[in-house]
What we know:
Blueprint: E1 2-9, H1 15-35, H2 41-55, E2 61-68
Helix pairs in contact: 1-2
Amino acid sequence: MVPHVSTVSADQADFFRVAGMWRLAAESRGRQMVAAGHLEEGEREAAVAEYAEWMQTPAASLTLHEACVIGRRPGKNRR
């Protein structure tokens, strides 16, 4: 496993692409959370709206903590 931490700020070209990933998750997975009873639809909608508003602020900054797992299948030719 290789940890990967990256920070993007509103003044960087990739900010909306990177920060927008959470918004997309809240749109899709958030609906599953509502269906499972973990939050109300209004709460999900409010979170998405507030996040989209935050993304428009000049001081917005987001730090992502991700991990990459690399594996090899036994018996396969390695180069």
